Amino acid sequence: MTPREREDRYARLLLEVGVNLQQGQNILLSAEPIGREFLQRLCRRAYEMGAGYVHAELQDAEVEKLRLQFAEECSLDYTPPWVTQRQRGMVDESWAQLSLYTPEDMDVYKEIQPARMERHQKALQQSQKINRDACAAAQIPWCRAALPTPAWAHRIFPDKEIEQAEESLWEVFVRVLRLDLSDPVAFWKSQAEILKQRCETLNTWRVKTLHFRGEGTDLKVECLPKSRWIGGGVETPSGVKFMPNLPTEEVFTTPDYRKTEGRAQVVKPVEVLGISVQKAWFEFERGEVVRYGAESGVEALERFFALCPQARYLGEVALVGHDSPIAQSAVVFHSILYDENAASHIALGNSYPIAIEGGVDTSKSQLLDAGANVSRVHIDFMIGAEDMEVDAYLENGKKVPVLQKGEFASSLQ
Fold first, then answer.
1. What average pLDDT does range 341-366 have in this prediction?
2. How many angstroms from the chain centroid is the CA of residue 292?
3. The pTM is what?
4. Was domain 3-147 assigned CATH 3.40.1830.10?
5. 276-280 contact pairs (CB < 8 A, 24+)
6. Which of 28, 319, 387, 413 lies 20 to 30 angstroms, CA to CA, from 3?
7. pLDDT for position 360
8. Is residue 413 over pLDDT 80?
9. What is the full DSSP assignment across 185-207?
């Protein structure tokens, strides 16, 4: 397969399965400058599919860094009013949104003073509220994906020359995205049905509590009475099915943020506020993280928890089998888009209303009162490994195996 062929297949997959672009629909495409040529490819494909209007934008992290370095600190709270107006317009018009992770400098914010970064992050979270809420409620079709870049590939394969590292990352992409199949679009539509069937089984069981056990982890996560399992994509109110992440191997739900107990050991690095946090761990009591640590990057966790009081509580719990092609690749991607699909994980911060029965039509205050976390932040932490055992305790008191030695039990295959 030539580079052009694999990129054409990838573009088709993102538009037909990722956002499921509809005839006449408008779409926003975004990436860093290095992704310019692929954005052009996406743009052409979108118009061939009948897009109404395509807006492509390059988000330059170096420009943002200059603001963080040199702007008056008080101005870091400012967001132009038109940013909110644009978001509202796109949501009202049901624009599709496809954003690409295309890092050109993996440590671009390393030299930024923590206080300035924290202030900027708070303002950024607030300015993105309309769009974030619309995505969380599946009001619009959206997808976050990634594109190999030299900097990212070299972080993953540091012992290889940059060009060789980038090609190695593309080889992994081809495998885990199934771009080497005769029809990747058909495969992912089929995969969506498999994940949905897994969710239907879990929903039928009416899971009350999940008990995770593994090296360093002994964690009990309680679900809400109205928790729903989601996987294989979601659906907008108008009936458009889409996949927020590609690839995707997870099924997830919303826990009761007030009732998590025990210890979780994080098994993969996680980027938190621009800093790589290695081997983090958390201890929960009555839902709250009361103790935590990390081999490195603990200061990023401290600043993360300072962003929002609800950042210390869970908003999501997700199950991923260790037989996932991403897990089997044994690659640490240093990107949540891929690493979260290699291992079962928990997320600190905001919950997804779509994973609660009637949640989309429920106010934020009502969700919080009912036990669904509401927060300005959301970060996934991977806790699953090949030794992971997960049991479900059902509302009828029955105990059912969910993961055994890291893989889904036979009843969920």
1. 94
2. 22
3. 0.90
4. yes
5. 276/334, 277/301, 280/381
6. 28
7. 87
8. no
9. HHHHHHHHHHHHHHHHHHHHHTE
* pLDDT for res 9: 97
Interval 85-120: pLDDT, tens: 999 999 999 999 999 999 888 788 878 888 898 888
Dump the DSSP string for 93-162: TT-EEEEEE--S-TTTTTTS-HHHHHHHHHHHHHHTHHHHHHHHTTSS-EEEEE---HHHHHHHSTTS-H
Residue range 17-60, pLDDT digits in tens: 999 999 999 999 999 999 999 999 999 999 999 999 999 999 99
CA gap 250, 300 in Å, rounded? 26
Per-residue pLDDT, 327: 92
Burial (Cβ within 10 Å: 0-12, 13-18, ≥19) of residue 145: buried
Q: CB under 8 Å to 258, separation ≥6 — which residues?
A: 286, 287, 313, 371
* pLDDT for position 348: 98
* Domain boundaries defined on the chain: 3-147, 184-412
Q: At residue 222, what are phi and psi to the nearest 5 degrees?
A: -95, 135
| 385 to 165, 223, 251, 339, 342: CA distances (angstroms) | 26, 22, 16, 12, 9
Q: Is the peptide bond before 244 cis (omega within 30 degrees of 0)?
A: no
Percent helix, percent strand, percent coil in the chain, to nearest 5: 40, 25, 35
In angstroms, the Cα distances linking 133 to 60, 197, 255, 374 are: 24, 27, 18, 11
